[in-house]
Every structure is written in structure tokens, then in C-alpha cells.
Write a structure and sequence with these properties.
Layout lengths: L9 E2 L18 E8 L10 E4 L5 E3 L5 E5 L8 E5 L6 E4 L8 E6 L6 H7 L9 H10 L1 H4 L5 E13 L2 E14 L6 H4 L1 E9 L20 E2 L3 E2 L7 H7 L17 H8 L1 E10 L2 E12 L2 E10 L5 E10 L15 H7 L1 E13 L2 E17 L5 E7 L4 E6 L5 H4 L5 E5 L2 E3 L1 E7 L2 E6 L2 H4 L16 E5 L14 E17 L42
Parallel strand pairs: 1-13, 2-8
Antiparallel strand pairs: 2-5, 3-4, 3-6, 6-7, 9-10, 9-27, 10-11, 12-19, 14-15, 15-16, 16-17, 17-18, 18-19, 19-27, 20-21, 21-25, 22-23, 22-26, 24-25
Length: 532
């Protein structure tokens, strides 16, 4: 289950896309909202929202959107909102409107001098970034749970194409983690509560096909895949380098406890906060070949617990379009980094003296080759007029179609010179030299391949009237997301003794056992808002 780099080709764990086969609807009504930065007016992704004095909560979507069941408006319930780098807020849920998107603004929190002095024991000299990270890794056994716990959460996988959600699959599940002392893939058990193939969003059957590195119909640019034997969710978990700190995970992390520090450049940035807790912010960078790494790691200034890690790999070559990323990177710097290949964001939350999962998001780029829109559909040998007729599905552009250099004509394996070309609507007529030799009664028609007794026609660089080049497939870029958001943490879990656990070698959405609890209504799918 290792992610390795060979000859500057990235290799990281990736699950095959499986098409969902079963959907279970949720008959709930929701309050819809969106979190916005009060200064920049940009959406705030991955903010934590909790119902005060209750176990229920959720995480804002990539576009800052969220949805909460309307029953929580009862009894003056309060929504607590927190996000790293912002002042926490409390909102009375009854003040939010039903039937519209409620905009909630969060204000960036500015560090004060007093808070710096009282929260760090390094009063005279700040420790180096390397020393902070080294101590944070050393304290993982102290800061993270090594006893069993469980949590219920919302899983989803989807694709983004030009900012639009595609192929959205959703699930509610409970994860039973034996603790950081146990191997995650082997020992962690998952119960699926509910599945949904969301038909409210567009389904793109081409994008759901498995990766194809033989014909290059669907690939991850500049990357190779390794089969891991896991499904969408287990492979998402394997990209959590904190939970799997003592095994190899993905490029360029390797083994977090042994490789991370020596493989990366680390430097301190301005401190920040979460719920009033001051955090070191350490920038992560690396350059190797045409690849660039950028990220951040957020560490408590008091306990040295890791709160959050952002890690993105970019490919420097090629044009840079709008990038779908959850990392706060200035646009100028983002353009310099290049094309985003993949990104992992993982965050933990403090309960008592330990850190527990809050969410994980894994986003990778992939490329689809759509079939050519302009192709020859048949060829005809016209003995009477002594020409070869090539018929296209669209009208060819005459200026291209009459160029002899755009064709190669073979008879019995011998290349023939073309004397004249005529264009008649969808057809191009090729007149060879030595017509009387070529067109005789013994000619065997063969238009698909060169044989000892056949004819073959090759065509290139011819466009149709719409600008499509003959036989040229169109390359389309998508972003694939897999995400899990915790809604309820259980520090004293009761693990069922039955066998209704997820089969890790099968897709989440393929004939999995469903074990819905009696209190299923306490949880919900935080489906993205459609008007993104």
C-alpha cells in the first residue's frame, strides 16, 4: 500500500469509480446556508458546525454551503461555528429562514500580543518549524487516541467539471476505530447506514468508467496507479498520513514519522487560532523535477497536537486554469505552482486531551478522452470514375480537404501518388496517378487496414466546418473528490457483534450490507447546494 515516485512520475492510491446501484431517499426538510468570509466575500469551506450541547454537527461544503434539518430550530437550539483562522460564532437556528440560502459571515481572527505571551513557553525565541513538527510527531501517541472510539459521518464522492457537480454518490456510516496503535486498514470496521446515488445532479457515464492506462481513455495526468484492494472509503482513509503515521502513505509524504521532515522544506508563518486556541502555522514546500508541493500544517502552541494538515502536489508545465482547491493560496502564488494534480486536507478536533477526526478531503485531477467528433465513416472504391471516395460524418472544411499532404493512399502495401482531389459535401474524392493500373477487375477492396492485396487510406489535419480535427479525441479535465465529514463522535462505542460491516474489497455502492440504526434520523447527508 505504498505510494512511490519513479522517474518523476507520481504514484498515489486511487479507488476505481463504481456506479451506484441502489439509492435510499431522505425525507427531510432543511435549513440551507452558506459561510462567507466577511472581508473577501469568498466561501469558507470545511468549517465545523455543532448544535450547542448536543452531539450532532456537520462540516461546510467546498463552496461554504451547509444544510441542517429544520427540527433543530426547535427549543432555541444554537449553532456553533468555528474554523481555523476565524472568530467563532453562535447563531440561533430559529433566526435562519426556511426556503432560502442564509448567508453567514465569519471574521478573520487577528492575533494579539497578550495571547502570544501567555500561550507559549518559548517567551524569548520561537522554536524553528522543524523543531515544532518534530515535537508534534513525537507527541502523536500522547495527543491522539490509542483506545477504541467510533464516529458517525457523511461520506460522498463526486466529480467537478467546470465548477459543476457530477456523479454525486452519498452515504451515512459509522466507523469503529480500534485506536492509533492498530493498523487502520486491517482493524477498522465500518457499518453503512444509508446509501444514495443522487439523481438531482448530472450523471456522466464517461467519467464513471474505470481508469484506463492502456488506451489512455481515462488517466490521472503524470501519475500511475497501484491496486490496493480497497474501496473508495478505505483508500480515502489511507491518504490520512496522521492516522497512518507509521506506515508509507503517498507521494511525497512517505512514512510521516520518519520521512516527512527530511523530505520537505518547512518554515513558520503567522500564527492563527481555532476556538481561541493559538496554533503554529508551518508552510510545507518541495520541488522535485516538474512537481511542486505546497501545504500547511497547524499545530497547537501548547500541546503540540496536530489540528490540520493541507498537502497539494502541482505539475509546473502546461496552462493553468481555475483550480478547485481547499487550500488558501494567493492567486499569484497558485499560478506559479502550476496545475493541481492532487490535494489532501485532513483536520482533527480536540475532545478532552485527545484529538479525534473531524474531516478528510481528497481531490485529484483526471483526464478523459472523448471520442473524436469528426471521423471518416466509410470508404468507397469507384471503378467507373476511377477514384477513392472517403465519406465523413460531418462536412469537411474544403480548404483542408483539398490538400494532398493530408492523405496517404496505399495499394497492395505500396504508397500511391494522389493526382487530384475533389470535395462533394461529406465526401472527398481521391484520384490516384496510374489509374488504369490500380483500377482493374482483380482489385480487392480493403479500406480499414493495409494488406498484401488491399487499399488503405490515411487522413490527418483535416477539419470539419465546426473546427473539429479528424480522428482527434477531445481531452477534458475533471476533479475527483472523496470526502468524509464527522457528525457525531462516540468515545465509548458499543461495537455490534454481527457481520453487517462494510466489505472493504467491494465498492461502497455495490451490494454492501446496510445496517441502519433506530436513530438514523439523527444524521443527514449534507448534500451540496445545486446553485453553486
Amino acid at each position: 500500500m505504498y505510494l512511490t515516485l519513479r522517474v518523476f512520475r507520481l504514484s498515489f492510491i486511487i479507488a476505481l469509480i463504481f456506479q451506484s446501484s441502489l439509492a435510499f431517499g431522505q425525507q427531510k426538510e432543511f435549513i440551507n446556508g452558506r459561510l462567507i468570509n466577511s472581508k473577501t466575500k469568498e466561501p469558507i469551506p470545511f468549517a465545523t458546525m455543532r448544535i450547542k450541547n448536543k452531539a450532532n454537527g456537520l462540516i461546510s461544503n467546498f463552496d461554504g454551503g451547509f444544510k441542517i434539518p429544520i427540527e433543530f430550530q426547535k427549543n432555541e437550539n444554537i449553532l456553533e461555528i468555528s474554523s481555523i483562522g476565524y472568530q467563532s460564532r453562535e447563531i440561533i437556528l430559529s433566526s435562519l429562514s426556511i426556503g432560502q440560502i442564509n448567508i453567514i459571515y465569519l471574521t478573520e481572527k487577528v492575533e494579539s500580543l497578550d495571547e502570544v505571551v501567555v500561550t507559549t513557553s518559548y517567551k524569548h525565541k520561537r522554536p524553528s518549524a522543524y523543531k515544532i513538527v518534530r515535537l508534534a510527531i513525537k507527541k502523536i501517541p500522547q495527543n491522539f487516541p490509542f483506545t477504541p472510539f467510533s464516529y458517525v459521518g457523511y461520506y460522498r464522492d463526486y466529480q467537478l467539471k467546470e465548477g459543476n457537480y457530477l456523479n454525486l454518490n452519498e452515504a451515512l456510516m459509522e466507523v469503529f476505530d480500534s485506536g492509533f496503535g492498530f493498523q487502520d486498514f486491517k482493524d477498522t470496521k465500518i457499518r453503512i447506514y444509508q446509501l444514495k446515488e443522487n439523481s438531482d445532479f448530472q450523471r456522466d457515464t464517461i467519467a464513471t468508467k474505470p481508469y484506463d492506462y492502456v488506451n489512455r481513455r481515462k488517466v490521472i495526468p503524470y501519475a500511475t496507479m497501484k491496486a490496493q484492494g480497497g474501496n473508495e472509503y478505505t483508500i480515502l482513509r489511507l491518504h490520512n498520513s496522521i492516522r497512518n503515521y507509521n506506515i508509507n502513505t503517498y507521494d511525497f509524504i512517505g512514512r510521516f514519522d520518519m520521512d516527512f521532515i527530511k523530505r520537505h522544506k518547512l518554515r513558520l508563518a503567522a500564527d492563527t487560532f481555532i476556538d481561541g486556541i493559538p496554533l503554529f502555522v508551518i508552510k510545507i514546500s518541495k520541488a522535485q523535477g516538474n512537481f511542486r508541493v505546497f501545504g500547511k500544517i497547524y499545530i497547537s502552541k501548547k500541546s503540540f497536537a496536530i489540528y490540520k494538515m493541507e498537502y497539494a502536489v502541482y505539475q509546473k508545465k502546461g496552462s493553468v486554469k481555475k483550480q478547485e482547491t481547499g487550500i488558501d493560496i494567493p492567486s499569484v502564488e497558485k499560478k506559479h505552482l502550476g496545475k493541481l494534480l492532487y490535494e489532501i486536507v485532513v483536520e482533527y478536533q480536540a475532545y478532552g486531551e485527545k484529538m479525534y477526526p473531524n474531516y478528510i478531503s481528497f481531490n485529484n485531477l483526471f483526464e478523459i478522452l472523448e471520442p473524436p467528433k469528426f471521423i471518416p465513416i466509410k470508404a468507397i472504391i469507384n471503378k467507373e470514375t476511377k477514384n477513392f471516395e472517403l465519406v465523413f460524418n460531418n462536412l469537411p472544411l474544403v480548404a483542408d480537404a483539398v490538400k494532398r499532404g493530408n492523405y496517404k493512399l496505399y495499394y497492395q502495401g505500396i504508397k500511391l501518388k494522389i493526382n487530384k482531389i475533389e470535395v462533394k459535401r461529406h465526401s472527398v474524392l481521391l484520384y490516384p496517378e496510374n489509374k488504369n493500373v490500380v483500377f482493374n477487375e482483380k482489385l480487392i477492396q480493403s479500406i480499414r487496414s493495409i494488406t498484401d492485396k488491399g487499399v488503405a487510406i490515411e487522413v490527418k489535419n483535416v477539419r470539419d466546418i465546426y473546427g473539429n480535427v479528424v480522428n482527434k479525441p477531445k481531452s477534458i479535465l475533471y476533479n475527483q473528490f472523496r470526502e468524509f465529514f464527522v457528525q457525531q463522535l462516540k468515545l465509548k462505542p458499543i461495537k455490534p457483534s454481527d457481520t453487517l460491516y462494510m466489505i472493504k474489497t467491494k465498492s461502497i455502492f455495490q451490494d454492501q450490507p446496510i445496517a441502519a440504526p433506530k436513530n438514523l434520523s439523527n444524521y443527514w447527508m449534507n448534500t451540496p447546494l445545486k446553485n453553486r
